């Protein structure tokens, strides 16, 4: 645990906009003895819109005090009709990474985790193929090979849920080439992050980079989003693009696309782990 995380708390708040919200939150934390170190807010419309707020604060012995502080804050939350949560930065989220055969996104996450850039506990890597187990082994992270096909989808889903239950807070799909079943989406609502191979909306179906090449695209990119029951339509967390031109062949587009996917997914995962994202409807407010 980093020294500044030991007593660092975070609050995420969403509520109808009205005067006094920031003052009420600040006064509450002040009376708790907390020191606000960062505060961000956004309103969709100061007159009748939705207000979003993220606050980081320091408070000695936060871990011991947090349950009582949350109980006391409910009175403030009720007054302003808040949807809110409070977290302790020192309690790292427990992460499961799902992957198939492509290794670039998985490698990026493992590398950043080893460097301390992803404040999480990676509990496991799950794959429908055995190919990436040698890559994961040096990190001393459990690797679970769960084959998935048309005949065993329900059985595989049961194995996944059994592996995850009580052990994982967040799931990252690092180019996992299987559709996540509705039961898992419902169980981990806004906790499953996927990386898409293009700047959504984009080419669907197989061989997206071949389609892009044939259409002579001028930009390619990647999109990280939360998973919903509707395929690739969940709230978007992060996107990025890079210009390409007529000189780039299919393999060039794939290489550039892999770089985009690695970077965009790593950003999205880090922001999620640091409680920087508020989901409202099918949109996100990202305090990056």
UniProtKB/TrEMBL annotation:
Its catalytic activity?
(6R)-10-formyltetrahydrofolate + H2O = (6S)-5,6,7,8-tetrahydrofolate + formate + H(+)
**Which parts of the sequence belong to the ACT domain?**
10-88
State one Pfam family annotation.
Answer: ACT
Record keyword Nucleotide-binding present:
no
- State whether keyword Zinc-finger applies: no
Per the UniProt entry, what are the Gene Ontology biological process annotations, in alphabetical order? Answer: 'de novo' IMP biosynthetic process; one-carbon metabolic process
Name a GO molecular-function annotation. Answer: formyltetrahydrofolate deformylase activity
What does the record give as EC number? 3.5.1.10
Write out the pathway annotation from the protein's UniProt entry: Purine metabolism; IMP biosynthesis via de novo pathway; formate from 10-formyl-5,6,7,8-tetrahydrofolate: step 1/1
**Active site feature:** 232
Q: Which UniProt keywords apply?
A: Hydrolase, One-carbon metabolism, Purine biosynthesis
Signal sequence segment: none
**Which SUPFAM superfamilies does the UniProt record give?**
ACT-like (SSF55021), Formyltransferase (SSF53328)
Family named by the database record: Belongs to the PurU family.
Q: What does this protein do?
A: Catalyzes the hydrolysis of 10-formyltetrahydrofolate (formyl-FH4) to formate and tetrahydrofolate (FH4).
Q: What is this protein called?
A: Formyltetrahydrofolate deformylase
- State the species of origin: Bacillus thermozeamaize
Q: What lineage does UniProt assign to this protein's organism?
A: Bacteria, Bacillati, Bacillota, Bacilli, Bacillales
């Amino acid at each position: 645990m980093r020294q500044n995380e030991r007593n660092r708390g975070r609050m995420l708040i969403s509520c109808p906009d009205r005067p006094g919200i920031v003052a009420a939150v600040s006064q509450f934390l002040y009376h708790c003895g907390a020191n606000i170190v960062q505060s961000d807010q956004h309103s969709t419309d100061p007159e009748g819109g939705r207000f979003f707020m993220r606050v980081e604060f320091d408070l000695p012995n936060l871990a011991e005090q947090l349950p009582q502080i949350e109980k006391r804050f409910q009175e403030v939350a009720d007054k302003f009709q808040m949807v809110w949560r409070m977290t302790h930065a020192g309690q790292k989220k427990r992460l499961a990474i799902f992957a198939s055969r492509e290794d670039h996104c998985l490698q990026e996450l493992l590398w950043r985790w080893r460097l301390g850039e992803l404040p999480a506990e990676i509990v496991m890597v799950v794959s429908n193929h055995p190919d990436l187990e040698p890559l994961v082994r040096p990190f001393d992270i459990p690797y679970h090979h769960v084959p998935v096909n048309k005949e065993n989808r329900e059985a595989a889903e049961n194995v996944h849920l059994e592996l995850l239950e009580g052990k994982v807070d967040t799931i990252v799909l690092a180019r996992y080439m299987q559709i996540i079943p509705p039961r898992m989406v419902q169980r981990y609502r806004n906790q499953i992050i996927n990386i898409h191979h293009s700047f959504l909306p984009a080419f669907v179906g197989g061989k997206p980079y071949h389609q892009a090449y044939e259409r002579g695209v001028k930009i390619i990119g990647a999109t990280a989003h939360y998973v919903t029951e509707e395929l690739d339509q969940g709230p978007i967390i992060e996107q990025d693009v890079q210009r390409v031109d007529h000189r780039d062949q299919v393999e060039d587009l794939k290489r550039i696309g892999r770089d985009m996917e690695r970077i965009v997914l790593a950003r999205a995962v880090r922001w999620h782990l640091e409680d920087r994202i508020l989901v409202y409807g099918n949109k996100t407010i990202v305090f990056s």
